[in-house]
Amino acid sequence: MSAAAQSRDVLVAPDTSSRLRRREVQGRVLRGLFAGATSFAVIVLAVLLLSIVLDGYDWLSWRLITEMPSRRPEEAGLLSALMGTLWVISLTAIVALPVGIGAAIYLEEYAPRNWWTRILQTNISNLAGVPSVVYGLLGLGVFVNLFGLGRSVISGALTMALLILPVIIIASQEAIRAVPLSLRQGAFALGATRWQVARHHVLPAALPGILTGTILALSRAIGETAPLLVVGAAGYIAFNPNSLTDQFTVLPIQIFNWTGRPQDDFKHLAAAGIIVLLVVLLGMNAVAIFLRQRFSKRW
Amino acid sequence: MRVMRTDSRARRISPVALVMALLALVALTPVLRAGAQDATPAATVTPYEAPENVGDLEGSIEVDGSSTVAPITEAVAEDFQEVAPNVQVSVGVSGTGGGFERFCNGETDIADASRPIEDEEAALCAENGVEYYRFEVAFDGITIVVNKNNTALTCISVESLADLWTEGSDVTTFADLGEGLPDEEISLYGPGPDSGTFDFFNEVILGDDVAPRTDYTPSEDDNVLVEGVSGDENALAYFGYAYFTENQDQLNAVAVATESDLSNCVTPSLETIANGTYQPLSRPIYIYVKAESLTRPEVQEFLRFYIANTGTLSEDVGYVAAPAAVYAGAQEKLEGAISGTVEPDSAATATPES
Questions:
Q1: Residue A163 belongs to a domain with what CATH number?
Q2: What residues 200-239 of chain B have any CB closer than 8 A to a CB of chain A?
């Protein structure tokens, strides 16, 4: 028996080792390729950040966020754009968050699994892939003209809310789906209603995932320009919005306005503006991470 | 096509009238004065004088239109805010066409325009009962540029420009443009079809029925064109004068001659663009004001401020001021429009005033 095993070893071993070597080589090559893919993305990002920081660093100052835009680059700031962005994003969150989470709860906790919900589900996924400018046209037609809201903060915010709603719904659904079934069953066993289960058990457990998804969606919205241009964010505004129906502009539009100027100084100013936008973005992502860490300890 | 023709006529009338006005100013002889007729009002721009209650003015003024004119309107709005802090001016950049669409739908008070209104747009205004006045705010000179190291091509005739830019053009090298020029292939850069500069260039250089060539590198962003030409020794492009002056260290401007034998080359400069000798590529740029909005005191003050200061402010942001006589005339027209003694320009779209 041992002799038979040995002879088989002898017979088979050279073959395995050559195949093994080939597989190992293959593994190493692919590992290298994947590492390359990762570092490519990171290097591009690093180069981009570096060139922006080099371009804009000297123009970075508090003046940038305390002053209104100006034709003189050394006096120009983007206060009105920053305030416009904050208004639009806050309103977007106020509108999109309850609607998005509500839809996700319905789809995951209440809706029966039939062809109708499958159609709904497919459409929501498709909506997430619709180009943003299409939402802009929708907002122009519905909010600006049909509802008569005009080219205002609220029109912009409602349009943005529509834009990120599918993303929020999908992210929330996934977070809700990840909540263990046993948690629901335990509550049901104690006589809780569907709403009580969702409200007291599923939602708290899914909250970190929902918040992360929402904030990432909002971060995407913050950099959007096209839909807001369509619903009429102005290129130049030297006053902050004070009400829902006021005119507004946002950071990316102000930055775009500056990059188109012939004077070289405005290009540096635009780079500095991009740094401000990045800081706002990173700040939002930091909040997302903080919330996830904080709330995930609860269960 | 009829639409375009009417417009190009309108565009050509005003520089002629300007030249006449200038001649009258310089010569100051009664004969010439009579010759220039109504085109010579008071020769100097009256400085803006704020009325006492200007700080109490409130309201918002909506401007939208050409991205070429926007920097001027923005500069005016910026300074006006110091005069009347409670008046909120917003400036959009929907493009001349987009701006007119909103203006004629009655959505905005003022339209920024890098060309005169077209018949179709005027018809929309008429349909919606929007009457308007037009004011010239500055000049822009479209500049033909080549790389700094290209010192061979210094002047080009309108005819050669047309040959070069027409659809299916067989001009491929500089040598094709004239004798003695290097036998190097030209790389062409220019604005894309959404640009007012593109429309204007094609209209005055190629004419109405001729399509421009498409085998060039287009960009709506003039800064991209500047970079293209500064990095390519054999490049040639055209774009607004402001983008040339800001990048003179990397670019050379090519003079333009209306005669094909290059006997009257004119280099674009503040002077030649403003006095209309840089032909045919200098163009006036405008604002259109809704007559109804002119009944609002904050709009009246904003426009008084605009006309009085646009000369200096347009130069601040890289454009060329029109001669003082143009602004003086505009001031007179504005006061007439406010008091209701001057008919809106929309009343006579077929023959716009100069």
A1: 1.10.3720.10
A2: 221-223
pLDDT attached to residue B256 = 92
B149 and B256 in a single domain? The answer is: yes
pTM over the 0.80 mark: no
Question: How many domains does the structure of chain B reveal?
Answer: 2
Mean pLDDT of A90-104: 94
| Domain residue limits at B86 | 2-139+284-348
| Token pair in block for residue B300 | 């009246």
Q: Give the rounded percent of residues in chain A with a pLDDT score beyond 70.
A: 94
Q: What Cα–Cα distance (Å) separates residue B183 from each residue in A34, A264, B110, B252?
A: 48, 34, 49, 19
Distance to chain A for B108, nearest Cα, Å: 11
- Residue B257: C-alpha distances to residues B20, B119, B166, B201 (Å): 21, 31, 18, 15
- Of the three residues B282, B313, B329, the one that is the final residue of a domain is B282
Give the pLDDT mean for A54-64. 88
What are A's interface residues with B at a Cβ cutoff of 8 A? 68-71, 151, 232, 234-239, 247, 249, 257, 259-264, 267
Task: Assess contact for A155 and A88: CB atoms under 8 A.
Answer: no
CATH number at residue B171: 3.40.190.10
